[in-house]
Amino acid sequence: MPRLYLVRHGRADSTGEVYDRLTDIGHRQAELLADYLVSSGVRPDAVYHGTLQRQRETAEHLTRRRPALSNRFQNTETASLNEFTPEFWGAMSRKLSALDQNFAHDLERYLAIRRKGGRRSMVLFLRLTEAIFESWATGMTPEGCESFDAFENRVLTFTEKLLAHKESDTVVVFSSGTPLSIMIARLLGWDRSRSLDWMRYLQNTSLSVFLPGRAGLSPAAINSLGHLPPDLHTLL
Fold this sequence. Notes:
Elements: E1 3-8, H1 24-39, E2 46-49, H2 53-65, E3 74-77, H3 86-99, H4 101-113, H5 118-137, H6 148-163, E4 170-175, H7 177-188, E5 207-213, E6 216-224
Parallel strand pairs: 1-4, 2-3, 2-4
Antiparallel strand pairs: 1-5, 5-6
């Protein structure tokens, strides 16, 4: 089994019209992560990232910091690593608002303050998202959206592809909170009921590392932020 480095993307533009791009803070986080990986002697044999802009931009900082590295590894873009879509979140929030007055109230409050950002907005978003995921994982899927089973299966199928790399390989993966939560749960040997447990904790450019041993892969770090100063710790 290979050495796996799993990275969540840098801070995205959660208060703007287009979420799928890094903010200035997100780019700085990605730069510091790239510096940390290079200075730690991480020399990838393969790099994977999703097709989303925020995932791609985060990955690009690794090759930008050390262009010579890009000549030695395979860089692959794959939709297997993509996050749920804003359309899915919106469709689920509308369905739940019609069923749950408390959810509808929280959604109204969140939409009223979303552009301002801040801790209150973040707390409301996470509360709403947890309710959405709970319903999604138990079978609620808006028409035209990806079911949780399909989402989980594509991530787990990709995880098995990662594990098929040679033991001597170093593999770096850039993705988002939900796919990474599913991957980490699988690598830890957790059952399906806990596959989303890490979603609410994985911070921007957090690093989770799994290293091979006699019993398979073992976690060397999960959600590590050692490459960032405290004022650059962000969740959305």
